[in-house]
Amino acid sequence: MEHTNHQVQFLPKDPLEIDYEALPEDASLSAHLGAGALAGIMEHTVMFPIDSIKTRMQLNLSSKDISRGLLKSISKISSTEGFYGLWRGVSSVILGAGPAHAIYFSVFESTKTFLCNRLTNSSQFNTKIVTDENHPLIASCAGVAATTASDALMTPFDMLKQRMQASAAYPENKLQSVRLLKFAANIYKTEGLSAFYISYPTTLLTNIPFAALNFGFYEYCSSLLNPSHSYNPYLHCVSGGIAGGIAAALTTPFDCIKTVLQTKGMSQNPALREVTGFKSAAAALHKIGGTKAFWRGLKPRVIFNVPSTAISWTAYEMCKELLIRDRRLN
């Protein structure tokens, strides 16, 4: 259908600028996959011990000493369970985070390109990849699409990670195998396939607003701190940290519910073992701990996401810059 002169424009008619923030227009799919995979692995592994502490706090598995501070928590877990206690479950993250984040950033870039081209009616920019950093709302919508796709792959790995993080705190599970494949096989045998995906709807309820806030605030902060859109790792790091902290704080209640669903099969609380979905998990959590139960682990969640999101964005922008530089040299 031809566009007429009377067609409503949703966004300014100014041409989109193709700058360093996008991969080159002829970038292959493998370039996006590689950049996203590296960013995801770095994001999750560097701050993994903080994520472990958050999981234990949300499950009320920690003593008062552990609940009082992160440094005390790290010291106590290391002394009682060994250094590996802080890294139990990291193998699941490494295995799942790479492919999941590769999909995440690829879907984000392609969706953002589609929306920029469609909403700005800019037919001259029907290139493979186009990124305009001046539209936080478009970035938020692209982030929602990206997290929906990536979570479909990552949810089973995240469930395994949280169960392995919590397993040492249950005496009856201390001798349980922490080998990933055997651990997954035992869960499948006792609880079935549904155990791996029971938290997927709740994961989306957590990660969709997280992604929208993360991408939106990242691009908003980037437009304020780096209006020229030049490659600046420091400003990418700051923008990513701010966006990740805000998004993490506001979505903590959903994350608490997700943790309950993903670890219900090993819970010692009968009420938590019987939950079947978001509504029942929320009700059980409120009955046990009241409103405060939905904010357990807030501090370590924010502390985890500020640097991890900053690392993720910085690593991704670095990969894109290197790809563009290599293309220019060739």
UniProtKB/TrEMBL annotation:
Organism: Lodderomyces elongisporus (strain ATCC 11503 / CBS 2605 / JCM 1781 / NBRC 1676 / NRRL YB-4239)
Coiled coil: none
Keyword flag Repeat: yes
Chief location: mitochondrion
Similarity comment: Belongs to the mitochondrial carrier (TC 2.A.29) family.
UniProt topology in membrane: Multi-pass membrane protein
Solcar repeat ranges, renumbered to this chain: 27-114, 134-224, 231-322
Name this protein carries in UniProt: Mitochondrial thiamine pyrophosphate carrier 1
Localization per Swiss-Prot or TrEMBL: Mitochondrion inner membrane
InterPro entries named among the record's database cross-references: MCP, MCP_dom_sf, MCP_transmembrane
Transmembrane segments: none
One Pfam family named in its UniProt record: Mito_carr
Keyword Transmembrane helix: yes
SUPFAM superfamilies: Mitochondrial carrier (SSF103506)
Role of this protein: Mitochondrial transporter that mediates uptake of thiamine pyrophosphate (ThPP) into mitochondria.
